[in-house]
Amino acid sequence: MQTAEKVRKQFRLDPGKILMVKRITHASTETEAINRALDMVIANDKIRKALAAAKGKGKIEDVFGRVSA
What we know:
By secondary structure, the protein is mainly alpha-helical. The chain has helices at 15-25, 30-54. It is elongated.
């Protein structure tokens, strides 16, 4: 997910978590890793909402337990 406008932010983040996200996402920079992680959170929310909307319609089984009651 790309946005046209970029803003500078200053955060205090755990360097171990950043390194782990960088490895998981195969990002070359810390900024890229954080952006990919944010994209994943946004995508997961869309998936959760789609599953919640589809719950009870058809035979979709929530095998990962991602949609709560």
